[in-house]
Structure formats: structure tokens, C-alpha cells
Design brief:
Rossmann fold, five-stranded parallel β-sheet, six-stranded parallel β-sheet, 11 helices
Length: about 300
Amino acid sequence: MARPYRVYFVYTRRKRDTGSTVMRAFQLREMLAQHASARIEAGLIEMPERADGFAAQERWVLSLPRDAVYVISKTAVRKLSSRAAHLLRWWGRGLCFDHVDEPQDRMRFAGADLHLSCSFTQQDAISARPELAGRVRLVHHHVDPEIYRLPQAQQAQFAALYLGDPLNTEVPPEIAAEVTQLPASTRAEFEAALPRLPEYNLHFCARRFRAGQEGAFKPFLKGFTAAALGAAVLASRDTEDAERFLGADYPFFFDCGEAPAVLERARDAFGGPVWTEARARMAAMAEMVRPEAIANQLANVVEEFY
């Protein structure tokens, strides 16, 4: 088949507006359209759920284009019947499950040709399963496209920030007054915070897992966001993928109880050679997860089926 090859991102109506569907289906399709359209033709398809009627998913599969790859979004993987998955794998060119941050004990491995991971840590963990050897592909998570429309972080004065759901972190009380917190647990909150992001040049990154989140694989998205803005991160050393991207000797990692001291170190280093080196590490990471790079990763996966 001549290029462009075809891929469809599959989601369900009820989960259309969830973060994982928006970012890993709708926004990935846009990235392919912008950066890999000569190689890949990408589309979106809504999948019926089993509650929509007897054999609704099976009939849906048989209505789909045949010569295409299908990427099933995280929440749709949960709703795809085994029979429909088997049929779709036969009907199309290839079937991929995109697990995003799903805990490994909740991931569904049966029924797909390939499994997409969004972090090095997740890739390593699921690749270690003997039945998945050679069937896991890395497609890094990306920064929200709105971030790239903002000016770079100011470098005139030191300013630290936590951007995200306040329930997902714990800023030590000793530094709470020095780390501005901008809530971003909803799309509306995130959009309200956007104009203020260039005011800050150090992003705090330490995750507190809530009940039910244990074992989830979280991409280094706070680091990616800071990097896209030209900021540094003050990050817990055990943050998934942080050392893989930035190196174990990145100067602003902290271990348990060290966050206040490392924040002080970052403030003292501001504008000097250590600060410059930290930002250079961040810039290198930013290049690895730019939209062009992620579109290329995904295009390579699709092309494996042709």
C-alpha cells in the first residue's frame, strides 16, 4: 500500500473529554497531521460500548476501514469486548492498546498486537513480562499544545511553582510560602493558570499517590511542561523517568526530607553556572518530547504493520 498509511484512534463517547482521551487520541491525531502527514493519515473513531446492544461492537468492527491500524485509548481498552478485539485484530492491519498511566495489575494484555507505553519506566515494566517480549513500543507523553504558545519562563528573578492537583503532591510546610501553587485539576483551572506560567522558572515535582493510584505509571509530564517553558524542576529523585532524562547528577533532585535544602540550593544557584547546566539538561529533555519527535515515534509504530 502506498503512503500515507492509516491509523485511527479509538475512544468511547462517555470518556471523550477525559484527559487521557483528549491528549492521547485527539491531540496525537493532530500531531500526526502536523508533523507526519506525508507518512500517516490519522483519524478518530468512536467505539460503541457493550451496553449499546447485542453484538454492537462486532457490527461496528465490520463497518471500519480494513487497511488501517487501530490504537485503542486507555479507557476504551477497558470497554472493548474480547470478541470484538479478536475480530478487529483480524479485520485491520494492526491493533495497539495505549495504556497511558494504567497500573500494571489493571492493564489488559490479551488481544493486542502491540502495547504502547508513555514512559521508560512503564516500558521496562511491561516488557519484562515474557508474553510481551518484543511487543511493547514507547510513545512518550506530550505537553499540552497550549504550553508552546506561551513565552519562555522569565529569568530575572527566582520564582518557584507547583502546577497541578494539590491533592497529588505535598509541598513541605517549610517552603509552602515560597512555592506558589496554581491548581490545574480541571481543564478550566489549567487554562486559567496558563497566562501566569511564564512568571515561574522552577517547577516543584513530587507525587503523592492517592487511594487507587498505587502502581500507576506516571510520565514525567510536570518535567516536560517545565522544560517546554525553559524552566528547571525541583523534583523528587524517585519521580519516574526523571533520572533517565536528566541524569542522576541533575543538581535539583531531592531525597526524602531534603526539599527545603535543595530549594535553597536552587535559589543560590539562580543565574549561575549550575542553574545554566540544569536548564541545559531540561532543554535536551524538551527536544526529546517535542511534538515532532512524538509524531515520529508513533509513525514508526504504524509503519511496522505495513
